Amino acid sequence: MKKQFFNVPDSSGHFGQYGGRFVPETLMPALIELEEAYLNLKKDKTFLRKLKELQKDFIGRATPLYFAENLTQKIGGAKIYLKREDLCHTGAHKINNALAQALLAKKMGKTRVIAETGAGQHGVATATGAALAGLECDVYMGAEDVRRQSLNVFRMKLLGAKVIEVTLGSKTLKDAINEALRDWTTNVRNTHYVMGTAFGPHPYPMMVRNFQSVIGQEARRQILQKEKRLPDCLIACVGGGSNSIGLFHPFLKDNIKMIGVEAGGLGVKSGKHAARFAGGSLGVFQGCKSYLLQDDDGNVLGTHSVSAGLDYASVGPEHAYLRDMHKVEYTSVKDNEALKAFELLSRTEGIIPALESSHAIAQGIKTAKKLGNKSIIIINLSGRGDKDVQEVAKIKGISL
Ligand SMILES: *Cc1c(COP(=O)(O)O)cnc(C)c1O
User: Fold this and answer.
1) What distance in angstroms lies between residue 188's CA and the mean position of ligand 1's atoms?
2) 174 band by pLDDT with thresholds 50, 70 and 90
3) Interval 24-54: pLDDT, tens
4) Which of 173, 213, 242 to mutate to test the pocket of ligand 1 (most atoms within 8 A of CB)?
5) Known catalytic residues?
6) pTM higher than 0.90
7) Ligand 1, atom 7: nearest CA belongs to which residue?
8) Mutation test of ligand 1: which of 87, 93, 352 has the most ligand atoms closer than 8 Å to its C-beta?
C-alpha cells in the first residue's frame, strides 16, 4: 500500500478511520457551506494576498527561527532551534487560525462569530480577529473558568467581545463547547463558529491545519537558509493538535523524525493526565472520531495538566492517523518535567515559554541528548509564558 499521509483527509473528511462529521442533522448544512466557502477561498488570490499582508503586519510574521545556542551548549547534543510562535501578536500561534477564520467569516457574509474557550487563550485570539474584521463576537466560557481566568475575560471585553458564562454541567470547557454548538445551530445564518484547534467535524481539522501550516512553511525555508539542509527532528506539544500539525505538515513528504508531546500530568498511571494515546481508545467526541480518554461505558474522563491548553480529553484526528502510519511518534511529559523546562529556558535563553510549549522543550532536551552534535532539531515554541507566571509562582508557593 502506498503511504498517502499527505493526501488526507478524503472528501468525506476522513483521515483513515479517524475524523468525519458526527453532528446533528441540523448542523450539516452549516458544515457543508463552510467547506465550500473554504475550498473556494483557497483559490481566491485577493483573499490570500490580504491574509498574507495581515500575517505580516498584524501578527508579525514571519516569526524567527532562533538558534538556542546557550541551551544547545548546556545540553551538549543536537543543535536546538526554536520556532518563535511566542512572538506572534497576542502571544501564541492561535491567532494564525483565529484571524484567518474571522476573515473567512466576513467573506462568507457572516456578521457574527462565536467561540468557546477554556483558559481564555482562544477566546482572546478570536475576539482579536473579530475586532479587526469588524464582526460581533460572543465567547462561551464555563463559569468555573470565568472565575479562574478573570484577566482574559476582561481582555476579551476590552476587545469588544461578549463573554457568555455557562453554568451547566462541570462549568468548564466541555460544557462551553456544547453551548457554542447549540448557538451555532440556531444562528447559523449570520454566525460562524471559530474552532480553536485541529479538531471537531470536517472541515475544521483540515482547515485549521492549513491555516497553521504557515509555521512549518516558514520553518522549512528558514532552516534551509541557515543550515543548507533539513532538520533531523521536529518536536511540538499536542493539545487539540494545531501548532504541532502546523509545524509537521509541510515536512510530511520528507524523511524526518517527528515527535508530538502530550500532557503526562502526574503520570499516566495516576489517571491524572491528558495523554490520549497512552491512556485513551477510539471514540467519538464533539463531532469527530479519534483517540479519547473514556471509561468502559464510553463516558468521557476528566483530565489533568499543569497547562490548560493541553488539558483536553481528545486529540485531532490527523494525529491518530499519522501515529498509525508510524510517521509521527507521540510521547508525554509530566507536569514537573515541564515546569523544570519552563525555568531552564527562562534562565539559559531569556525566553519564558508557555507551560504548553514547556512540554515540547522538555522532550526536546531528552531528544537532543540522544542525538549527536551533528544533528539539528526544531522545537515549536507555541506561545509565551507571561500568562503562566502567576500559576508557576503559586505552584512554587510564592505569593505575589
Ligand atoms: C492552546 C495552546 C496549545 C495547544 O493547542 P494545539 O491546538 O495543540 O496547538 C499549545 N500551546 C499554546 C501556547 C497554546 O495556547
Assistant:
1) 27
2) confident
3) 999 999 999 999 999 999 999 999 999 999 9
4) 242
5) 94, 116, 382
6) yes
7) 242
8) 93
Cell numbers for 301, please give them.
474522563
Ligand 1 lining (C-beta closer than 6 Å): 92, 94, 121, 197, 237-244, 309-310, 354, 356-357, 382-383
Q: What pLDDT is stored for residue 154 in this prediction?
A: 96
Q: Which atom of ligand 1 is nearest to the CA of 198?
A: 7
Nearest protein Cα to ligand 1, atom 14: 309
Q: Is the pLDDT of residue 1 over 70?
A: no
User: How many angstroms separate the alpha carbon of residue 332 from the centre of ligand 1?
Assistant: 15
How many angstroms is it from 10 CA to the middle of ligand 1?
Answer: 26
**pLDDT for res 172:** 81
Given the CA of residue 199, which atom of ligand 1 is nearest to it?
7
Closest ligand 1 atom, residue 354 Cα: 13
CA distance 327 to 336: 28
Output the CA 362–ligand 1 centroid distance in Å.
Answer: 16
